[in-house]
Amino acid sequence: MRLSRPFFQLPLLFDVERLRAEVAALPPEAWVEHPDRAPGNSAVRLITAGGGENDGVQGCMAPTPWLESMPYLKQALAGFGVVWSRSRLMCLAPGASVPEHADINYHWHTRVRLHIPVFTWPEVRFHCDGETVHMGAGEAWVFDNWRRHHVENNASGARVHLVADTTGTAGFWRFVHAPAPSRDQWRTVSWDPKASHPLLTEINQRSPIMPAAEVQWLLEDLKGELALAVDSPEARRRAGLFIQLLDGFVFDWRQLCALHGVDGEAATEFQRLAMAVRDAAAPLGEGLVMRTNGAGALLALEKRVLLHLVAEDAPR
Fold first, then answer.
1. What are phi and psi of 141, to 5 degrees?
2. Which residue segments constitute the domains of the chain, with CATH numbers given?
3. Residue 268 has pLDDT above 90, yes or no
């Protein structure tokens, strides 16, 4: 989800000692390799599809046994009153880093990532789009992960953050964007064994075929971000053809939806159209980038749209 600036700090403080005690009590087997296998990166899965040991972002999200063993951390998440998607504890070993990247795939089009640091050090630095912050222990932050970002742990100890994904309610976003009071007026979220906030988790179930209205919305957004890496008559010509191709694709996708519906019975026809557009876009995408993060237009088209048009389990 694109934000108006790289970082937002929320005026909340959490009980660092209680968070650390719950994290420290986790057994070694709770920690698993980062799904991208980045060196020095590991994680504890807290909210996953079905509450199991997986890193998927689709399905019925549920707390894992690890989260159930951490009542204060669970209370902290529930207290936001939002619906949570995939959520984890993320550990960055001493001297390790999160390589620079931008999160441009479909999952991130409507979601933001909340960070609550648990173990951290002044030498840990979070960089996003030219700005750098240190997220202090017990604080709460969101950042624009559509922009290019990376993290460096130059400390002698491991950094552990609670990292949770959400679309956020209207109230949540008003809270994020509101002018922050002075730090001495921030609310401290203390452990309350009688807290009754339910933990809300996503039921992320898509139709086998992406409806035409959503396809059009995604592509209109992509077109609005399109920029030229180097301005030239040839680049402008290819940009115009790229946009025409996307407009035509929307018409053809809508026709297939009108003819077959979105139950997936004609998934092969939809897949054939998506691959034809991908092949036609390949020679046009050279030198076309996304204004937000510089990602190539073809890569953005694939990761935001084309790879998600037909569900993996749709009939073929």
1. -135, 150
2. 7-204 (2.60.120.330), 212-308 (no CATH)
3. yes
Residue 291 is which amino acid? R
- Nearest Cα to 287, choosing from 276, 279, 277, 298? 298
187-189 and 12-14 as β-strands: parallel, antiparallel, unpaired? Answer: parallel
- CB atoms near residue 167 (< 10 Å): 16
* pLDDT attached to residue 315: 59
Structure confidence by residue, pLDDT tens digits, 273-300: 999 999 999 999 999 999 989 999 999 9
Query: What's the pLDDT tens digit per position in 217-263?
Result: 999 999 999 999 999 999 999 999 999 999 999 999 999 999 999 99
| Closest among 176, 159, 207 to 43, alpha carbons compared | 159
pTM of the predicted model as reported, rounded to 2 decimal places: 0.92
Task: Kindly tell me the sign of the dihedral angle through the C-alpha atoms of 81, 87, 91, 95.
Answer: negative
CA–CA distances in Å: residue 25 to residues 29, 113, 139: 12, 25, 21
Distances (CA, A) of 223 to 192, 218, 226, 243, 291: 48, 9, 5, 7, 10
Transcribe 123-137 into DSSP letters: TEEEEETTEEE---T
Tokens of 23: 């994290």
- Of residues 275, 242, 261, the one with CA closest to residue 315: 261
CB 219 within 8 A of CB 43: no
**Which secondary structure element, helix H or strand E, spans residue 245, and what is its range?**
helix 233-260
Q: What is the pLDDT of residue 113?
A: 95
Residue 196: predicted pLDDT: 82
Per the listing, tokens 């620079």 go with 100
